[in-house]
Amino acid sequence: MSQELTPEKLEELKHSHIRSFSTRKGRISHAQERALSELFPKYELTYDKENKVNAKEIFGNDNPVVLEIGCGMGETTAAIAEAHPEINFIGCEIFPSGVGALSLLLEEKQLKNVRIFKHDAVEVVRDMVADGSLDGVHIYFPDPWRKARHHKRRLISPFFVDLLSPKLKTGAYLHCATDWENYAEQMMEVLSAAPLLKNKYEGFSLVAENPITKRPVTKFNERGNRLGHGCWDLVFLKK
User: Fold this and answer.
1) Is the four-CA dihedral 180, 185, 187, 188 of positive or negative sign?
2) Which segments does the entry list as coiled coil (predicted)?
3) Separation CA 65–CA 36 (nearest Å)
4) Considering the chain, what is the average pLDDT of its residues?
5) N or C terminus: fewer CB in 10 A for the chain?
6) Where are the alpha helices (DSSP H) in the chain?
7) pLDDT exceeds cutoff 50 at 4
8) Is a pLDDT exceeding 90 seen at residue 9?
């Protein structure tokens, strides 16, 4: 017998989503673990679905705000933030090792313009980011979920793009990058179909032409280049 679809259940389904990350426990070094407990509290933003992010209150200024989804080990986040002290960066990273590594980099470089959510980015965007509040969004090398049966778990989907687009200011940018061609094609299809977005270019973009910040070439990129992997960047603007 099927379960009755009550109004409460409908509301729950409306706010649920397929997670784009695996909850498997990754490795974490002693240095990252220590940074997580000792340094991360200085940069931490706490998920609270009842309150929106107030960037002026957090950073103490009215500088542009860029959201980075999936900071990884923090190399790119720290490099861009160091190059652009005039921009405030809010990162979302779910894995403790990445949060610890990024916290270490922020401390080493004494960066004041980065804060971090250790939480699912979809929930942060859905519940805590106000419409028209972001000047840019970076989504660099999200998990490609290579197997066809796992494609439904990819972050760049119509559901998420429809959720994210209203959070951008008019003219703000969304910059995505992937080294998986099939995912790049899907990104282009999804973003091109988004009613609130327009491609800044006729197709894929050049990294150097990012409208606000350049995406640095990381060790991850360099390794991919040596192995002959491609890399695709997409820059879309909010209409």
Assistant:
1) positive
2) none
3) 24
4) 86
5) N
6) 7-14, 30-38, 40-43, 55-59, 75-83, 96-109, 121-128, 158-164, 181-193, 219-226
7) no
8) no
Annotation-wise, does 42 bind a ligand?
no
Cβ contact 171:239 at 8 Å: no
The span from the CA of 193 to the CA of 65, in Å, is 25
Q: What is the per-residue burial (b if ≥16 Cβ within 10 Å, else e) of 59-89?
A: beeebbbbbbbbbbbbbbbbbbbeebeebbb
**Closest alpha carbon to 95 in 76, 59, 71, 65:** 71
Residue-range domain boundaries for the chain: 27-238
44 is in an annotated binding site: no
Check whether 14 has a pLDDT greater than 60: no
Q: What pLDDT is stored for residue 214 in this prediction?
A: 74
Burial label, 169 (beta-carbon count in 10 A; 0-12, 13-18, 19+): middle
Q: What percentage of the chain carries pLDDT values higher than 90?
A: 69
Under 8 Å between Cβ of 139 and 175: yes
Would you say domain 27-238 falls under CATH 3.40.50.80? no
What is the per-residue pLDDT for 220? 63
Q: Which of 62, 127, 135, 143 is catalytic?
A: 143
8-state DSSP, 157? S
Cβ atoms < 10 Å from Cβ of 45 = 17
pLDDT at 86: 96
